[in-house]
Amino acid sequence: MMNVNKDIVKVFFDENWNLNISLHWFIYSLVFVVVLLWIINILRSKWIFHKNLEIDSAEIGIQGQKIKIKPNYTNINIAYKIWVELNTRKIGLKIDFDNDVINEVYNSWYQFFGITRELIKELPATKIRLDKDSKELIEMSTKILNEGLRPHLTVWQAKYRKWYKEVKDLDSNKNKSPQTLQEEFPQYDLLKDDMERVNKNLIKYKEVVYKLAFGDK
Asked: Do 105 and 26 fall into the same domain?
């Protein structure tokens, strides 16, 4: 028997003069770990970095051409945080005007404004400059606030809140529910139609960030 390396590799001839090579258990373990890491990396890449997402700007109520975003760790993290906020507030759910209170919906929209701004500010500008896809996501999210949400709030929020504050404590309205009273707003139908339009766009936006965060399922 000929020993090339007693600890790592053994090369020898058996009784029939067949060449045999024996590897130390450490080599087998090392190969197993390398192969396992390789498989995990492939599976993780397929799960996290799914196909590029193409977004129709018009569907979510903002101007511009279609947006293409390639998922990466940065924008997946941003998208997930935004999705959580949308999915746990009235802003990302369909408004039920028979049961929802407009004042509370406006409160939710206002809070979402502030939270989204903070999420965007968390990212260093130097990192965004080097990451085109995260920059696209942030610009899209900013447009959702400025083009999708702000115009409605500018036209309707102050006007409605002022009216509601003035009428809710009147003797004739004290026994009315907020849902019943809000229907008496002089421009209720116009307000409702515009809120529904914005609401639909925000739900579409929620679907977009969901696909970025979790994959297009």
From this structure: no
Residue with tokens 């369909």: 94
**Residue 139 sits in the same domain as residue 162:** yes
Write out the two tokens for 82. 């935004």
| Cα 164–chain centre separation | 34
Rounded CA separation 115/124 (Å): 17
Question: Are 82 and 176 in the same domain?
Answer: yes
Q: Is the pLDDT of residue 208 over 90?
A: no
- The dihedrals phi and psi of 150, each to the nearest 5 degrees, come to -60, -40
Choose among 127, 123, 139, 134: nearest CA to 64: 139
Q: What's the pLDDT tens digit per position in 12-30?
A: 556 666 666 665 655 556 6
Integer Rg of the chain from CA: 29
Distance CA 70, CA 31 (A): 33
The three-state secondary structure class of 56 is coil
Report the alpha-carbon distance of residue 215 to residue 192 in Å, rounded. 33
Q: Do both 82 and 35 map to the same domain?
A: no
pLDDT at 193 over 80: yes
The DSSP line for 134-145 is: HHHHHHHHHHII
One domain for residues 28 and 131: no
More confident residue, 171 or 52: 171
What pTM did the predictor assign? 0.71
Give 167-171's long-range contacts (Cβ < 8 A, gap of 24+): none
Q: Check residue 192 and give its pLDDT.
A: 96
